[in-house]
Amino acid sequence: MDVLALTQKFPQTQNLAGQDMTTFAVNSSELADIVKYLRDEQGFDLLADLCGMDWKDRTPQFGVVIHLLSTKNREYVRLHAPCVDDTVPTISDIHPGANWHEREAYDMFGIKFIGHPDPRRILMWEAYPYHPLRKDFPLAGIEVPFPAADVAAVTGQTVEPAPMMGGPFVSSGGLMSGAEPQALDQSWNEEKPKS
Amino acid sequence: MVKSDFGYNSKIEGEVIVTRADAVVNWVRSHSVWPMPMGLACCAIELMAAGGSRFDISRFGMEVMRFSPRQADCMIVSGTVTYKMAEVVRRIYDQMAEPKWVVAMGACASSGGMYRSYATLQGVDNIVPVDIYISGCPPRPEALLDGMMLLQEKIRQEGGSLKRTFRGRTVDTKIVS
Ligand code: SF4
Predict the structure, then answer these.
(1) What is the ipTM of this complex?
(2) A97 and A34 in a common domain
(3) CATH code at B145?
(4) Which end of chain A is more exposed for a tag (fewer CB within 10 A), N or C?
(5) B32 CA to middle of ligand 1, Å?
(6) How far apart are the CA of B147 and the nearest CA of chain A, in angstroms?
């Protein structure tokens, strides 16, 4: 790809010297223009992936990563775009395939995509109050009402935190045969409560 | 069929069979289970295998899989039940006509399995009464067949009314016969 042409056209774009593919940090206000420019002028005609990021202690905390593929030149490019007030402009009008990816990034991280044609959740149900892939969200979940009120009335069920029993279960590394997944904290289990 | 349920000796009774209504109703029911394949994840593949010619669920009289809950009386929950899908599972269960049974196939349906997470219902028995639990991740088709035969056994032992316990409450559903 023509790195020089890109950085001359968008001077705020920063080449991050990615190890596996060309990587740029881009300004989120220019994101849509850059994606469009890469598609029309540099042949990056396929959106390979779009996902959210949570940097936890950085500001801005959230960002979006976009992988584009040029099917002509067989080349990838990666764009990092930090959010502004947890928002980024949508690119679903440039690559229609971004539509569901953006809904997932919204669902899991709470990143809002300005101009998205259908900004609903995609995995969790619409009334769910949290964004579960955020770093401060516990894997086990937080108690909330059951999605359907009438089913909850019959069953008395709520969305409960899953019993972790010292989990999450992780492999200790090394050869697969000797690395059974184990709970990180084995000092408690079903019989022995957490002290 | 338990032997004592039928009294039949062709020399004495001719063409008359003496039995109890419960026994004959249960016998008929146990051999015409119409399952509703509630396939939600990988376990559903083994459920399909059980329906294929190699394992052949029809040998035991329960091959009539119906994708409409109104034509089925046994829901085989095969797969991971997420909270989002749980509502649908319960609605489909409610649409099935009595008498009805539920089989929780695999670790996920029985207990949430390996999915100890915010998205997964920890066992389908939290929202519907389950008759048979089948272990395995996934259970082999033989295990499913074994579970279904256990269900047949259970149906054969049912009385004139179907008493089910669900979350500590006894639900009594009278059979109209
Ligand atoms: S029990 Fe195992 S095979 Fe069955 S649905 Fe769960 S993960 Fe898949």
Answers:
(1) 0.80
(2) yes
(3) 3.40.50.12280
(4) C
(5) 27
(6) 25
